[in-house]
Amino acid sequence: MKDECGIVGLFNVDDSAALAYYSLHAMQHRGQEGCGIVGLTKNGQKLIKGEGLITEVFNESKLAMLDGQASIGHVRYPTVDGGGTENIQPFLFKDYTGDFSISNSGCIVNSSEIRRELENTGSIFQSSSDAELIAHLIKKDSKSKKIDAIKAAMRMTEGSFTYVLLTEDKLYAVRDKHGLKPFVLGKIGSGYIVASESCVFSVIGATFIRDIEPGEIITISKDGITSDKYSDYQHYYMCAMEYIYFARPDSDIDKVNCHLFRKDSGRCLAKIKPVIADMVVGVPDSSLSAAMGYAEASGIPYEIGLIKNKYIGRTFIQPNQRLREKSVKMKLSAIPTIVNGKSIILVDDSIVRGTTSKFIIGMLREAGATQVHVRIASAPLIKPCYYGVDITTKEELISSNNDCETVRKIIGADSLAFLNVDDLYSISKRKELCLACFTGKYPINTYKENSDE
User: Fold this and answer.
1) H or E stretch at 217
2) Where are the domain boundaries for CATH 3.60.20.10 in the chain?
3) Which of 273, 310, 350, 451 is the most buried (most CB within 10 A)?
4) Which of 349, 239, 344, 333 is CA-nearest to residue 289?
5) Strand 371-376 vs strand 415-418: parallel, antiparallel, or unpaired?
6) What is the pLDDT of residue 340?
C-alpha cells in the first residue's frame, strides 16, 4: 500500500522554509498524516518532521531553525500499511560526499525487486518508503556526478512518481516518464520553486513557468536552471483522479484547470443523463464545481443543501472503515430548510465503497428530501490502483462486482448515472490519461496485473 502525497522544493529563495510551510499548507488536502521540511541552513541541512497537520508540527520557532535559501517539504497521506513516523518525509542523509535530502510523491511499482537486490548487496533500510529506496540507488553510484547518479537510479525504477532532492548547492526535481503525477515549476524572486500543484504559487507569490515534462530532471542552482532527460520514452498518462478529485480546483495540471474540468463534467452529465428535479446539490468540496456545471446546463437551480465542517479531513483517506463512517457523520450536515419537500440531484465526484453515498442519501431523506437522484462526475471505479492511490483490492470497490442498478439499490438512490471513459477524454481534451481504475488497462506494468487483488 503506497501513498498519494504533496511535495515542494525551493532554491535561492529568502525565507524558503517559511514559504515551504505555506506551500504545504496549500497542499494539505494531499495528506494529513504527517509532514516535514528540510532547510539548507548556514550549518548544513536540518530536518524537522512529525505526525499531524502542518500547523500542528510547525511553529515560528521551528521554522526559524530551518532558515536559509533552499528547502524541500512533504505532506503525507495516511494508508493502512506503511504508516508510522519512520515513513514521514523528507529523509535527510549524512554522507562524506555531501549531505542530501529527498521527498517523493507516488510509488515505484518494482520497489520490492529493487529493495531485495539492494539488501542482498548490503543496503539496510529504516523505512518502507520509496524515497529511501531512491536515495540508496543514488548513493550506490556515488562516484558519478549527482545528475548522472539520479539518471541511473531513475532508469532502474518503474512507476508513477515525482521527486525533489536537495544537496548543498543544487535542487533536483524529477517527474516519471509516464507523466502520471502533476509537477510544476515556478519563479519566485531571483529563485525557483517546484511543487505538486500550481495552487501553491498564488499563495506564496510565485509565477508559473511550466509543467515539468515526463522523464525530465530539472537542476536548479545559483547559475539558474538546466534540463535533462533520463529517458527518451515519454507519455502524458496523467491520473484522471487528479482532475476528478485529488487536486485543488484552482490548480492547473498539464494546461487543464481542475475547476473547469469538473464544471464541464457536470455539464456533460446534465446532457447525457438528465433528470427532472427541484434543485442540484453538490457534495462538498471536490464535487461543487461539477454540481455548478450540471445546474448551468440543465437550468435547474443550484443550492447549498449540504454543509461541510472544514476542520474534518477527507473520508476517502481515512485508514479504516470505522473511522471513515465516523468522520462522515462529523463532516457533513444537510440543511432541512433547503431540502425539505424537494427532489434533489446529488452530484458527487465518485463512488468508492458506497458507504459515504449511502449515508449522505439517508441524511438528505431524514432532512425531508422527497427524491435523491445521484449523478457521478466520473466512470464507475472497478479496478485497484497500484500507482499511489489507496484502492488496492477490488473488494473495496462497490462497482467492481455490481452493475449500476444494484449499486443504486445499495446506496438508496432514486436513480444513479455515471460518466464513461470516453466522456473523460472529451472533457479533458487529452489523448492520454491514466484510467486504469475505471478500465483495468494499466499504462505501466504493475507487477500485480495477473493477481486476484
Assistant:
1) strand 216-221
2) 6-235
3) 350
4) 349
5) parallel
6) 98
Please name the residue that has the C-alpha cell 428530501.
369
- The second-level CATH assignment, the architecture, of 261-429 is 3-Layer(aba) Sandwich (3.40)
Whole-angstrom Cα distance, residue 252 to residue 234? Answer: 20
CATH label, 6-235, candidates 3.60.20.10, 1.25.40.10, 3.30.465.10, 3.40.50.720: 3.60.20.10
β-pairing, 216-221 vs 224-229, is: antiparallel
Helix (H) or strand (E) holding 291: helix 288-298
Model confidence at 320, in pLDDT bands (50, 70, 90)? Answer: low
Whose cell is 510547525? That residue is 58
**Residues identified as active-site:** 5
**Contact assessment for residue 73 and residue 23, using Cβ atoms and an 8 Å cutoff:** yes
How confident is the model over 369-389, as pLDDT tens digits?
Answer: 999 999 999 999 999 888 877
Q: What tens digit of pLDDT does each residue of 41-62 get?
A: 999 999 999 999 999 999 999 9
In the chain, where does the domain assigned CATH 3.40.50.2020 lie? 261-429
Q: What does the alpha-carbon distance between residue 16 and residue 32 come to, in Å, rounded to a whole number?
A: 22
Tell me whether residue 400 is exposed, middle or buried, using C-beta atoms within 10 angstroms of its C-beta: 0 to 12, 13 to 18, 19 or more: middle
* Cα-based distances in Å from 360 to 24, 94, 269, 349: 30, 50, 20, 14
Cα–chain-centroid distance for residue 362?
A: 29
Nearest to 277 by CA among 364, 379, 405: 364
CA atoms within 13 A on the CB side of 294: 38
**Res 97: pLDDT:** 80
Calculate the CA dihedral of residues 265, 203, 253, 17 and round it to 10 degrees: -140
The grid cell for 47 is 530536518
Q: Is it true that the peptide bond before 90 is cis, omega within 30 degrees of 0?
A: yes
The answer to whether 209 and 186 have CB atoms below 8 angstroms apart is yes
Model confidence pTM above 0.85: yes
CB count within 10 Å of CB 55 equals 12
